[in-house]
Amino acid sequence: MSLHDEHLKLALRHAPDSELAPDALIRETVLAYANAHLQASSDSKLSCLQKWFRFSHVANWQLASMASVAATLLIAVVLWQQRPDDTIWADALPTITSADLSKQATENKLAKAAPAEKALASLLPQESSPVSAARERETRQPQLAKRSEPSLARHDNDKLAIANAPHTGLLNVPPASTLSDTGAADLAKTIASSAVDSSTSLLAALRQNGGKVMASKDIQAGKLRLFKIHVQSIQAKNTCTEHSPRTPEVDKVSTYEIEVIEAYEASEQLQKLLHDEVEIYNETMLEWHANRER
Amino acid sequence: MRKFCVGDAHAFQLLYERHEKPLYRYVRRMMGIALASHADDIFQDTWMRLVDARDSWQARDNASFKTWLYTIAHHRAIDLLRKSGREVSVDEGWLDDTSEEPWQLWPASSAEQPEQQAFWRKAGQQLLHCLDGLPALQRAAFILHHDDGLSLEEITQVLNAEFETVKSRLRYALSKLRTCMGAYLQPLF
Q1: What residues in A contact B125, CB-CB < 8 Å?
Q2: What is the pLDDT of residues A142-175, one digit of tens each?
Q3: Of A16, B36, B62, B89, which has the most beta carbons under 10 Å away?
Q4: Residues of A with CB below 8 A from B12's CB?
Q5: Exposed, middle or buried, B159 (CB in 10 Å: 0-12/13-18/19+)?
């Protein structure tokens, strides 16, 4: 059976309604609607986007899917940016030679530091490099140096403590005599980032000269004293700023005044190293006192 | 249509003038005699929907404007027919397998003699009555194919139906119409 019938087509063409047309009012309405629509859409391209979403192209479940994917991506990006990047430390740590270290410790770090840090740098004696001082002390006290050769890996926590510490009066600084080359560089960096106060000056002197040399200098200068490390948290420091100054302690044997060096938020290793350096200083001072008594 | 999509109002006017009468005829014949008064509303609504959806037309592949226009009109007409309860169900048993009928011998005259014009006019009037008795989808397939000149492939898009389904509906429609018209035109043989 054919699906096309010319007779029916002819009859359809001659049907009474074949010449019917819609009202002129409908024509005007439709054309006006189209013109208004064109005008409105030309005003704002955003409406085109809205229409695209509204008409049949994007279903509700598709919109929900897109929103879910977008939210997931946003969360992933936020979490990724908050994650600490371990490679930062690896990149920040150069392969240090002695020459590089001397530059880092004395020039570059201090030159890039803030004005307060520069002021601190000016307090430090510049006649010898930290590396040479550290090596000199290591030769004089092999047992202590052997005990305290920190590797780069062991200093990671210390670096974090240094980086996280505020710049005001935090003496989480290892003594230079007990540090390796890179440790000395970190020490210089830490001192440079600390504010100027009495404890910082003492630490800087200890770092520069070592406990034994500093004790010798103090003896020659007539500064007969002992040191004591006092480690506490930042909160304790902040709450104690209003307190009255401590009454100076005196060593019962030598009757020398014991000066307290405040250290805040120092790691265990740093505390240990700091204590060692102070211990050397005190031993040197007490040994000189004992010799003088004889 | 592309020009209209990029904001050419005159292009839309040309489109309207080109498709105004055929589309109106299609809508009116789909509505039938009983619902003829709704033809104006459906016709106007079809064009307005087309204007609203002009941006989505660009995304369609190989869809001619005419097919798209008739698809919108068809869906609106079917919606209204369903609401009014006028949609006639498909009666599969009505199909007569006898393909060769006496009405096929009607004079397929191309001449425009006044007598023949009157004859075809009466035949056309009768055909409208016969169309009223067809199910809506068969009626749509017949009108789209014979009056609006759409191919079977285009009709499948308008009716959103399979190709074989469209062929089947068209076959049913022709069979019923030939039967309905045959008796009316008998005196001409």
Answers
A1: 15-16
A2: 444 444 444 343 444 444 333 333 333 344 444 4
A3: B36
A4: 31, 34, 38
A5: buried
Q: Are A188 and A112 in contact (CB under 8 A)?
A: no
Structure tokens at B67: 């097919």
- Can you say whether the dihedral through the CA atoms of B156, B159, B161, B165 is positive or negative? negative
Stronger pLDDT, B51 or A111, i.e. the higher one: B51
ipTM: 0.79
The pTM for the full model equals 0.45
Q: Is the pLDDT of residue B138 over 70?
A: yes
**SS in 3 state form for chain B?**
CHHHHCCCHHHHHHHHHHHHHHHHHHHHHHHCCCCHHHHHHHHHHHHHHHHHCHHHHCCCCCCCHHHHHHHHHHHHHHHHHHHHCCCCCCCHHHCCCCCCCHHHHCCCCCCCCHHHHHHHHHHHHHHHHHHHCCCHHHHHHHHHHHCCCCCHHHHHHHHCCCHHHHHHHHHHHHHHHHHHHHHHCHHHC
- What DSSP character marks residue A56? T
Top residue of B10, B28, B44 to mutate, by most chain A CBs within 10 Å, is: B44
CB of A22 less than 8 A from some CB of B: yes
Most confidently modeled of A54-68, A147-161, B86-100, B156-170? B156-170
Asked if A46 reaches chain B (Cβ–Cβ under 8 Å), the answer is no
Going by their DSSP bridges, the two strands A249-250 and A257-264 should be labelled as antiparallel
Distance CA A201, CA A205 (A): 6
Chain A residue with minimum CA distance to B21 = A21
All residues of chain A having their beta carbon less than 8 Å from the beta carbon of residue B147 are 9, 12-13
| Helix, strand, coil share of chain A (percent; to 5) | 65, 5, 30
Q: Do A26 and B40 lie within an 8 Å CB cutoff?
A: yes
**Which amino acid appears at position A138 of this protein?**
E
Looking up tokens 């601190």 gives: A120
> pLDDT tens digits, residue range A20-71?
888 889 988 999 998 888 777 666 566 666 666 666 566 778 888 889 999 9
A274-288 pLDDT, tens digit each: 788 888 889 988 988
Q: Do A9 and B147 touch (CB under 8 A)?
A: yes
- Can you tell me whether residue A230 is helix, strand or coil? strand
Which amino acid, A223? K
CA distance B73 to B77: 6
Provide CB contacts within 8 A for B16, sequence distance 6+. A27, A30, A31, A34, B47
In this complex, do A11 and B127 lie within 8 Å of one another by their Cβ atoms? yes
Q: What would the two tokens of residue A152 be?
A: 């780069």
